[in-house]
């Protein structure tokens, strides 16, 4: 009897330890294809602002960080199916997404830019109305399932919207003249515009944010399941602490060259 009880107690201990271990790991989903928010380097390693931020947050909430790579299209379904616990993939907090998931406090915000050839059809565009007029009947590329796709489809009638799986695919078609212009976050354009391939291109018109149209959201935050309220509270407190001590600003300046944090 004593031996059976000892075995049972040991089994309970192992089960409890396993449960604790699972709870102490925070799995973060990211795309690895949206620099400088997140990217994959030449060795296949995930790098970027959100990778560093995820590790910093895990340290502050005393959890082990596990970064999971996930295609953008399947990001929210994978979160809801519990493949990971949070999304850090340059995902903006919007009313539409809040119908499905919750978010941490926003940790970054940057404007959206229209980009085209320097001597192309947008060369004289100064305002959003100028851009709308110039793009009528033209092709505009955008990454699918983004706020930028929503904006083009809902706010700019009469254009041919071309959808891409990644920003790199969009850049390639723009470079090769297969589309007339593109819309993406300004930071999503950063590497392309600084490259040899992008030297003949620039951004036109105003930078667009949630102040211009609510479609652009409140900034980028960590996507979370609605039921995970305790985790949201921990991450919000950690983000507040990083804002207060300046470490969020330092990470932002390291990866973007300027402060994108939301105070």
Automatic annotation (TrEMBL):
- What SUPFAM superfamilies has UniProt attached to this entry? Periplasmic binding protein-like II
The listed locations are: Cell envelope
- In this chain the Solute-binding protein family 3/N-terminal domain maps to 25-259
Point out the signal peptide segment: 1-22
Asked if the Swiss-Prot or TrEMBL record annotates the protein with the keyword Transport, the reply is no
Q: Which residues form a coiled coil?
A: none
Task: Give the keywords, sorted.
Answer: Signal
SMART domains per record: PBPb (SM00062)
State if Signal is listed as a keyword. yes
Q: What coarse category fits the chief subcellular location reported for this protein? A: other
Output a single Gene Ontology CC term carried by this record. Answer: cell envelope
Family membership noted in the UniProt record: Belongs to the bacterial solute-binding protein 3 family.
Write the protein's name: Solute-binding protein family 3/N-terminal domain-containing protein
């Amino acid at each position: 009897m004593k031996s059976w009880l000892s075995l049972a107690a040991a089994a309970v201990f192992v089960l409890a330890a396993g449960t604790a271990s699972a709870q102490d790991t925070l799995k973060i989903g990211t795309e690895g294809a949206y620099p400088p928010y997140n990217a994959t380097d030449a060795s296949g390693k995930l790098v970027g602002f959100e990778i560093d931020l995820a590790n910093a947050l895990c340290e502050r909430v005393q959890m082990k960080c596990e970064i999971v790579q996930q295609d953008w299209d399947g990001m929210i379904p994978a979160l809801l199916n519990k493949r990971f616990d949070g999304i850090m993939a340059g995902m903006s907090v919007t009313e539409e997404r809040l119908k499905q998931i919750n978010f941490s406090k926003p940790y970054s915000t940057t404007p959206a830019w229209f980009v085209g050839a320097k001597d192309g059809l947008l060369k004289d565009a100064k305002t959003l109305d100028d851009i709308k007029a110039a793009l009528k009947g033209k092709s505009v590329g955008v990454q699918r399932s983004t706020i930028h796709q929503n904006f083009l489809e809902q706010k700019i009638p009469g254009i041919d919207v071309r959808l891409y799986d990644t920003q790199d695919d969009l850049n390639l078609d723009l470079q090769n003249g297969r589309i007339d212009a593109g819309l993406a976050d300004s930071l999503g354009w950063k590497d392309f515009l600084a490259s040899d391939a992008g030297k003949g291109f620039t951004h036109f018109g105003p930078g667009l944010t949630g102040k211009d149209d609510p479609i652009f959201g409140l900034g980028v935050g960590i996507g979370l399941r609605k039921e995970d309220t305790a985790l949201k509270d921990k991450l919000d407190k950690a983000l507040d602490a990083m804002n207060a001590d300046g470490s969020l600003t330092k990470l932002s300046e390291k990866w973007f060259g300027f402060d994108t944090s939301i105070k």
